[in-house]
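Sample intake sheet
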Amino acid sequence: MSPLSIRRQIGQLLIAGFKGTQVPVELRSLAREFGLGGTILFARNIEAPEQVAELSYELARVSPEMPGWVSVDQEGGRVARLKAPFTEWPPMATIGRSGDARLAEQFAKALAAELKSVGITLDFAPVLDIHTNPKNPVIGDRALGETAKTVAELGAVIVRALQAEGIAACGKHFPGHGDTNTDSHLELPLVEHPPELLREREFEPFRAAIAAGVATIMTAHVFVPSLDDQRPATLSRRVVTGLLRQELGFEGVIVSDDLEMKALAADRAVPDSAVQAVEAGCDALLICAGDYDVQAAALEALVRTVETDPAFARRVDDALTRNRRAKERFLGATVGAAPLTGRALARVLGQDVHRRTAEEMARFA
């Protein structure tokens, strides 16, 4: 890989957050210099459905070499960036309480239709954590249930339904964030379970999602000493490559959670975390705050490491191949489509069948 080609490709590993409701000049500059794997939308980027559709159309094309993911956290409940007139979904715990695979499938198909209508191609859902700790401040009703069986069965249904409708799904957060007392946005949570329990319980929903063909899996910024007593899971080769890639056999794209979360960033510079996450086995890196200088510094760090470390260069080649394969699977038919507008868009969002599904879910709140 020549120095010139790596500078034009390394950005494919980045899924970038940004500020504002239009494509920033700085993001275009980043994409011109390094390429760009994709972007993630937050509430700060969203004004109205037509604006989101037009923004997504531009974002998908900001990197000339390869279409970019347009991604979002649209789970339902308290983690939902798209508000009315989009359907406002109850939390996923309602589907778990229903125990109804048909309802899970209806939800996922309706969600996919609304995401597709505004050009979003990757949803960071479903949550595959098991809600085993009632004091958990960050998972709670985002989880489908309190048992591995419930989460595995319904999570796999949601994965299949989302992806059958053309939306890449993401199982999160491996190796499991359900039994923690702290929020990884604020500090590094500790998971004190032995490997045998993790394999029996926390890993089961991920196995089911992998069997269902899930496109991406997101790592958790948690510290699990029984698996790696030196590094958080996202930065651990034992966890990311040894367990998720090799033991569980996941062949898709492994995405880091946001490298700017304090679980990592409190004592690590983002560029250092970026290099360590890719070394560990991550294929895509979320850097979400929208600071162009931080994102560029992370990409520069990756370039420098490729240029000096042949093993790291091979790891980057593997990550680029996995990203390209996933994009060929999901973006080939959609990235050329013009955004919906006016009545065509309004007919999709919040339509009666979607609203009835949300009402049925709410019965189990």
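Comment: The longest helix spans residues 310-330. The mean pLDDT is 95.
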